[in-house]
Amino acid sequence: MKEINQQVFEGERALFKAHDLNIKNSTFQNGESPLKHSKNLNIEHNIFKWKYPLWYANDINVSQSTIKLEAHAGIWYTKNLKMDDTMIEATKTFRHISHAELSNITMSNAVETLWWCNDVKLDHITAKGDYFGKNCENTVVDHLKLSGNYAFDGSKNIEVHNSTFETHDAFWNCDNVTVYDSTLVGEYLAWNSKHIRFVNCWIESDQGLCYVDDLTLENCSLVNTDLAFEYCTDINADIITTIDSVKNPVNGVINAPAIGEVILDDPDIDKSAIKINVGRKTA
Fold first, then answer.
1. pLDDT tens string 186-208
2. Which among 91, 75, 92, 73 is positioned nearest to 83, based on CA atoms?
3. Long-range CB contacts (< 8 A, 24+ apart) of 175-181?
């Protein structure tokens, strides 16, 4: 593999169709799409200062690098990507990527980032920005710290571990999401979704968990949460804190130490189809 070291690249498509390169200590500036249609690259300690740095690329390793604010829409339509120990300041960085492993990355402006991506692993990611993870499929997340609204909207087959979400409208329009050992803070959690499961989670959500088909909560805290479970079906909720209020669940079982108020005011719901058990031990 040929090595490029301590170079400055300028101009559009500066290394168009580059392949089999080890690029170190270099800067890409003043020219878009510098590595378009590239393959088999090892990129280490590089700085990207202009837009569209890695489009339609394959077999790319990026480490200890920086993607500056002006390098927005940076990595699209790329396959087999590994990235670690990297700072990303730009928006819209990942779209239509597949088979990617991203670890130890800070995204300070992650607006509209990670859209329409498949087979992605996220490990120790810190991100701030709205609409993170839209329409993703087959994604495994571990130690994600996310601040920003509308996270993972429309996504499918998502598995989350040991993460913290400060976001309203998270996991809307989703199918098959499981969240383990995580903290979720924000209104209207998981509306209009199906096959949603939370395990050992701490949740605070005004009007959270409504309009969900097949909803499971195992050993979860539900704090400062009112009007929960409205029009949810196939509920299996095992809650270890007091729920402020529950409204119009359709069917299933809800267990909690206490519920401030149960509202059943829709005459079209069969009240015998929902079982609400109070008095279990608190956390």
1. 999 999 999 999 999 999 999 99
2. 75
3. 177/152
